[in-house]
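Protein modeling request. Please complete all fields; requests missing the sequence field cannot be processed.
Requester role: graduate student
Desired output: 3D structure, token encoding
Chains: 1
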Amino acid sequence: MAKKKASILLIILAILLPFVAVLIKKGLGKDFIINIILCILFYIPGIIHALWIVLK
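Delivered output (56 residues):
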């Protein structure tokens, strides 16, 4: 049950603050840098990338 709640919170975080969700899930790495760039250029691709990382 706790794992399900954590997943739901990560999904909500991926929609509101995508780079934070990627940081929590993967740490500081290439995925985080990619997400920061996507969020700076366009917000929607950053959300899609974060959701992909969280749900993978």
